[in-house]
Amino acid sequence: MSQKDNTPPDPVDTYEHILEHEDTDKQALAVGIDRFVKAVGHVVMWANVLLILAIVSQVSMRYLFDLNFPKLDELQWHLYALVTMFGLSYALVTDSHVRVDLLHMKLSRNTQRIIEAIGILFLMMPFLFLMLDQGFDYF
Questions:
Q1: Which residue in 37, 38, 97, 119 has its CB near the most CB atoms, within 10 A?
Q2: What is the CA radius of gyration of the chain?
Q3: What is the mean pLDDT of residues 80-95?
Q4: Can you tell me the distance from the alpha carbon of 74 to that of 51, in angstroms, rounded to the nearest whole number?
Q5: How far is CA 64 from CA 54, 59, 74, in A?
Q6: Cα(35)–Cα(40) distance, integer angstroms
């Protein structure tokens, strides 16, 4: 609580302060891309609400009324893809992705960056290969 007016702190501001890491990048292009990804990420987050509504609607109609709407299944896949792709980029920009920090926090900043880059490359390569291999025919 603030001592001046006895109002509780805004939970959104508190969460944003915890979530966001300090941007040390000074390059205008990098800062611009980060801002763009964050802005798009904040908009795309609301697609999760639509995704949940689509899933609950589909399951309810299927099991309560014995109805099936394939277009609703298709909408779920598109929303899931949207949220996943933008969510991954948002997590990388805001440094809110999951990792094991026990050893990570004891390493130098340069070593942390090298490990992050190698990890992203080696974990993304199988995914990118799969997307290219399986998605090329659809394209």
A1: 37
A2: 20
A3: 84
A4: 11
A5: 15, 8, 20
A6: 9
Tell me which residue of 18, 78, 74 sits closest to 44, measured CA to CA. 78
Condensed to tens digits (0 to 9), the pLDDT of residues 117-130 reads: 888 788 878 888 88
What is the distance between the alpha carbons of residues 132 and 138, in angstroms, rounded to a whole number? 10
Residue range 93-122, pLDDT digits in tens: 877 766 666 677 778 888 888 887 888 788
Tracing tokens 């792709």 back to the chain, one arrives at: 85
> SS3 breakdown of the chain: % helix, strand, coil, rounded to 5?
70, 0, 30
The reply to whether the predicted model has a pTM over 0.70 is no
Cα–Cα distance measured from residue 53 to residue 47, given in angstroms and rounded to the nearest whole number? 10
**Averaged pLDDT of the chain:** 80
